[in-house]
Write a structure and sequence with these properties.
Elements (H helix, E strand, L loop, with lengths): L21 H5 L24 H4 L28 E6 H6 L5 H8 L3 E3 L10 E3 L2 E2 L4 E5 L2 E2 L16 E8 L3 H4 L6 E7 L7 E9 L3 E11 L4 E12 L9 E15 L2 E13 L6 E2 L20 E18 L2 E25 L4 E29 L2 E20 L10 E3 L16 E20 L4 E10 L2 E6 L5 E5 L2 E13 L2 E12 L17 E14 L4 E19 L2 E25 L2 E16 L1 E4 L2 E4 L11 E12 L2 E10 L2 E2 L7 E2 L2 E13 L2 E8 L7 E7 L2 E7 L4 E9 L1
Parallel strand pairs: 5-8
Antiparallel strand pairs: 1-7, 2-3, 3-4, 5-6, 7-8, 9-10, 9-40, 10-11, 11-12, 12-13, 13-15, 14-39, 15-16, 16-17, 17-18, 17-19, 18-20, 20-21, 20-22, 21-24, 22-23, 24-25, 25-26, 26-27, 27-28, 28-29, 29-32, 30-31, 32-33, 33-36, 34-35, 36-37, 37-40, 38-39
């Protein structure tokens, strides 16, 4: 059994454009200086960098644990005037959540997935907004730029220390594309205490998993961490529903001095996801007879490869000053070769297939982020101030067959007995366009502590990206400069150490498309802007055995591209979208044998002013629910340690109804998924786990397509399945 690629990718070529590798070496030097730290000053130790020192609990809301996803000042959720979820990587693995998407949607409050092969199986919805251009994804605090609506890394939870989810606008921290929220995946770090762990698992549909985690010291000042995990399955769709992936990460931390640490890491992700794009609807429903049929061509291919290198430096020249620098390089290579649209034809009784597409992405992102924190007093009050800059260069090349004969091909097959056929030889991809994006930003945060009970948090960020796009067919090109200013104001009132009341006002920006792949037709539009008002409360009770959060918010997003009434061929940025809602979460461990974790999100989302051209006429969708956005989301996990060495858990995930079209006529029904697990502690260092997914075998849609207000196909979630896993530490 091999988890490695079964064939070489034709797109695995050296990156083009970008900043040279020397930048990665030179950038951290801006923070290196002769050390003059006194003996009494606190040192930068691996405790600040490693899972061992993170203090992230395996369950619970982690309200007292430092979270850098919602603030670079290193505040806890109790100290932060925002809605924050901190999901322990151990929690995800214990609950059988093997992907980042599963960990986020089954644990965080109000987050759902619209994962599909076209967006990298990693798109989310939050607070009424959907997709990778509105819910930003980070890796170790560094933004992953969205190329043509696609993000493919990270995907595996084996190397995850924790996942930080910030709900609501976050452009003040990370720039455009974060009006709905941010998902920050924080990896395991080197440790000076030896550890080794391995996992093996088998399950339904030929599923097999292998994983290894190893860390420890190399001498007195050097520590390492190495993780590798591979997954493969025959898949529940036939034919060609199989998938396989491989994730490898390695890191070295050098404690060069008590107040100076360097961490060099490299991560590799390789994926061959299931080549499945959905199941056709027949009279508005999924027939049992075709539920497991895959209508893609026989020679379909999907490959995603990501390489991520980082060099982090942390220096504390005094007790009140901390300087951090991150230099990085990301390379992504992606390929799609398949037929992606399926619709049942009532007149013929056959499945019509269209969108025979071949697409290649070549993406390179090189950048550097520096920030410095100074702690002191202002007018006699304690104060924490952080300022920094972020610069990066993104080179992107798109190869496709949109204009070829294959791109417009349509075929039809029998729903039950069919030959998948092959991709047409005359429909292959050719170079289409290339873009070069340079982005520079400056940012600052400040926390003024007026008393032990009252603190004020402010932040501001200015972004200035420049995009150059060149048509590789015609040679035409254009350049577009953007500027965006984002800010937030927040206040926290803590009447007791275990209770926080807060209010916040924040602004954000979103691109009208993926910024680094903006098309000529959208070149003259501005960034969409948004604002949020939020109030909430968070608390800890019964000596830490209970944690809870409650929040209410309203978000308004302006400058949507909307068709001008009476002029169906003219569009302008006058559209508006809004949402308001309440969210609550609770974690209870009041009895030794029982633990309950639950959350719920209730919202109302709508287009306030939004027109589109339909059949030559302008149609208003004001008052309609946005595409892919559910208005009811809930999660429940119950753990029961019913006997020595035994623990059972059951989880329920509920997602409300959604729509595949602007007019809300192509409805996707709500669903509830029931998952369960049973753990037996074989010995002090080994654990046997049985996991069951979708126990009720619910048929549900993760995403869907519609034509003229009629649903054509749903991308279905996995059916009932089982898995047995064995973990051992040594």
């Amino acid at each position: 059994m091999s988890f490695f690629p079964r064939s070489a990718l034709p797109s695995l070529r050296p990156g083009h454009g970008g900043i040279g590798a020397s930048f990665l070496v030179l950038a951290p030097l801006v923070v290196l200086a002769p050390l003059a730290a006194s003996a009494q000053e606190p040192a930068v130790t691996l405790d600040t960098l490693s899972v061992a020192g993170s203090g992230v609990a395996p369950t619970g809301l982690n309200l007292r644990n430092v979270d850098r996803g919602a603030s670079r000042l290193g505040l806890t959720p109790l100290e932060t005037p925002a809605s924050v979820d901190v999901i322990s990587g151990e929690t995800a693995r214990r609950r059988g959540q093997n992907t980042v998407a599963e960990a986020v949607t089954e644990n965080a409050t109000g987050i759902t997935t619209v994962a599909a092969p076209g967006n990298g199986n990693g798109a989310f919805t939050a607070r009424g907004f959907a997709g990778p251009n509105s819910i930003q994804q980070l890796y170790d605090g560094t933004r992953l730029y969205v190329g043509a609506g696609t993000v493919t890394f990270p995907f595996d939870t084996w190397n995850v220390e924790r996942i930080e989810v910030l709900r609501g606008p976050a452009s003040v921290l990370y720039g455009d594309g974060a009006i709905g929220g941010v998902v920050n995946v924080v990896t395991k770090k080197p440790v000076f205490t030896p550890l080794n762990e391995a996992r093996a698992a088998v399950g339904s549909d030929g599923l097999a998993r292998l994983a290894l985690d190893s860390g420890g010291p190399i001498g007195e000042a050097l520590a390492y961490r190495f993780n590798i995990s591979g997954n493969r399955s025959g898949g529940w769709m036939q034919p060609d529903g199989d998938f396989r992936n491989l994730a490898v990460s390695g890191a070295l931390t050098l404690q060069a001095a008590p107040d100076l640490a360097f961490t060099l890491s490299h991560d590799l992700g390789y994926q061959e996801p299931a080549r499945y794009w959905g199941t056709p609807l027949v009279n508005g429903r999924i027939l049992d007879s075709i539920r497991f049929n895959n209508y893609n061509v026989r020679d379909a291919k999907i490959f995603w490869t990501d390489n991520w290198t980082q060099l982090k430096t942390e220096w504390s020249p005094s007790a009140d000053i901390t300087v951090r620098n991150t230099a990085y390089r990301l390379q992504s290579r992606r390929q799609w070769l398949d037929v992606e649209q399926y619709a049942f034809n009532r007149s013929t009784g056959r499945i019509d297939r269209s969108d025979y597409l071949e697409i290649y992405h070549q993406q390179e992102q090189v950048g550097n982020r520096l920030d410095a924190t100074v702690r002191g007093t202002v007018f006699g009050f304690r104060n924490e101030f952080l300022a920094g800059f972020d610069v990066n260069h993104i080179a992107f090349r798109h190869t496709n067959n949109f204009s070829s004969e294959g791109g417009g091909l349509t075929t039809s097959v029998d729903p039950l007995t069919y030959d998948p056929g092959l991709f047409p030889a005359n429909g292959r991809a050719t170079p289409a366009y290339a873009t070069s994006t340079n982005q520079a930003s400056v940012f600052a945060e400040n926390r003024l502590i007026l008393s032990d009970q009252v603190s004020l948090l402010t932040g501001v960020r200015f972004d200035a990206p420049t995009l150059n796009r060149r048509n590789l067919v015609t040679g035409d090109s254009f350049q577009r400069d953007f500027q965006a200013l984002s800010y937030r104001f927040g206040a926290v009132y803590a009447p007791s150490p275990d209770l926080s009341l807060y209010a916040q006002y924040a602004t954000a920006t979103d691109p009208v498309g993926s910024l680094i792949t903006l098309s000529q037709s959208l070149a003259n539009f501005r960034l969409s802007t948004g604002e949020q008002v939020e109030v909430g409360a968070k608390g800890i009770a019964f000596g830490g055995l209970a944690e809870w959060t409650l929040a209410g918010y309203r978000i308004v997003k302006d400058n949507l591209v909307s068709t001008v009434p009476g002029q169906p061929t003219v569009s302008t940025q006058v559209g508006r979208q809004s949402s308001h809602g309440v969210e609550a979460a609770v974690s209870l461990h009041l009895f030794d044998a029982w633990r309950v974790d639950a959350n719920v999100a209730l919202l109302h989302a709508q287009y306030d002013d939004f027109n589109q051209t339909v059949a030559g006429a302008v149609v208003s969708y004001a008052g309609r629910q946005p595409i892919d956005v559910p208005e009811r989301v809930a999660n429940l996990w119950v753990n029961w340690a019913f006997a020595p060495a035994w623990e059972a858990r059951i989880g329920v995930q509920y997602v409300g109804e959604t729509f595949s079209d602007f007019g809300n006529t192509a409805r996707r029904p709500d669903y509830a998924l029931l998952n369960a697990g049973l753990d037996y502690q074989v010995g002090p260092a080994s654990r046997l786990s049985l996991r069951a997914y979708n126990i009720a075998d619910t048929v549900y849609a993760i995403s869907g397509n519609a034509v003229n207000g009629v649903g054509t196909n749903w991308l279905l979630g996995r059916p009932r399945s089982f898995e047995v896993a064995y973990n051992v530490s040594f």
